[in-house]
């Protein structure tokens, strides 16, 4: 076997492997799409409560993991302090939504990390909302960050 033949064969093998990996990744993405859609719907409902200033109800609609990490009163105060200077939400668009089975510092499970480009009345920000599939099979928000 010549060196050229070996190189051509290895390139073909690499292309074939890359194609298989792409197809496997595409199949996994397609399988996760319904979960991502459900998580996005839960995030929108949760964000609407935050946008309306109903921070206590916002906490009530959060995941059990979220509720175990912060009290309702502490959450209402923290979210109110963070959101008040920003003003009303003028627009919000999904930048990315990525399905994950593990996240740093969180138990393994099903999560969707959603980043929004959000225009507030007084500031432009990236909001990161992380719904998770909760113990009862419902998607609920387990994390929220504003940058």
Describe the structure.
The chain is an alpha+beta fold and 147 residues long. It has a single domain, classed as NTF2-like, domain 1 (Nuclear Transport Factor 2, Chain: A). It is 50% helix and 27% strand. It is built from four helices and four strands; from the N terminus they run H-H-H-H-E-E-E-E. It has helices spanning 3-52, 55-60, 64-69, 72-83, and strands at 89-100, 111-120, 124-133, 139-146. The protein has a four-stranded antiparallel sheet with strand order 1-2-3-4. A hairpin with a 3-residue loop joins strand 2 (111-120) and strand 3.
Which blocks of ≥5 consecutive residues have pLDDT under 50? 1-30
The CATH architecture category equals Roll
Query: Strand content of the residues, in percent?
Result: 25-35%
Head-to-tail CA distance between termini: 58 Å
Order of helices and strands: HHHHEEEE
| Total tally of structural domains | 1
Say how many strands there are.
4
Pairing-aware structural class of the strands and helices?
A: alpha+beta
Spatial strand arrangement across the major sheet: 1-2-3-4
Could you tell me the CATH topology label: Nuclear Transport Factor 2, Chain: A
Oligomer: single chain
What's the helical proportion of residues?
40-55%
Question: What's the CATH first level?
Answer: Alpha Beta
Alpha plus pi helix count: 4
Question: Judging from the principal axes of the Cα atoms, what is the shape?
Answer: globular
Rounded average pLDDT: 84
């Amino acid at each position: 076997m010549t060196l050229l033949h070996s190189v051509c064969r290895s390139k073909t093998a690499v292309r074939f492997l890359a194609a298989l990996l792409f197809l496997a990744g595409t199949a996994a993405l397609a399988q996760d799409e319904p979960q991502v859609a459900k998580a996005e719907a839960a995030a929108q409902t949760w964000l609407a409560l935050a946008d309306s200033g109903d921070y206590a109800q916002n906490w009530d609609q959060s995941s059990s993991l979220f509720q175990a990490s912060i009290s309702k009163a502490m959450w209402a105060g923290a979210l109110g302090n963070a959101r008040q200077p920003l003003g009303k939400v003028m627009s919000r668009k999904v930048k990315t939504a990525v399905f994950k089975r593990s996240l740093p510092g969180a138990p393994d499970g099903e999560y969707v990390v959603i980043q929004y480009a959000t225009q507030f009345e007084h500031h432009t920000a990236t909001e990161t909302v992380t719904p998770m599939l909760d113990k009862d099979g419902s998607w609920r928000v387990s994390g929220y960050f504003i940058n």
